[in-house]
Design a protein that fits this description.
alpha+beta, eight-stranded antiparallel sheet
Length: 179
Amino acid sequence: MKNYPMQYADREISVEDTLEVLDEGEFITVATVDDDGMPYCVPLSYVVERGWGSVEGAGEGEEPVCRIYIHTTKNDGHKMADWRRDARVWGSVACEVEPCYEETFFTTRFASAMVAGRIRHVESSLAVRKMLVALCMKYMPSEKHEIGGAIEREFDITDVWCIDVERITGKAGRRKPKA
């Protein structure tokens, strides 16, 4: 994987800030390539599991890195066929997106994260259940009392996949300070 420098280096954010963008994002768009070379990308719900280790873009020493978990149906489709053929993927998350007008031009406030890695099917039933609970708690914490039953009803038709992040970069522009 060729490493291109960020075009606007002054907008690059730290790995820790990039992980916060990943935590805050609503969905991740995951890109792959068809067997005929055509790009394919799809927005997916996801949850982040943070860990420790080394990853390109994380700097020197032990920096926080992550794994990104998504759920799918067990029915093979376009994305899963691509993932099984070539596990390399890119993911993109944007948050804090707000169009604005500054002085004489239109622009956008934003924070974004890009991750590259390899995706794998999660085989462990315990790990699948853990990630399904985490997904439910991210998107519908008000319905936490329904999670167990929903997982039991859907477990046999649901798969979980994991992106093992190998590279992470973040960028932001014109962000409002957090209160």
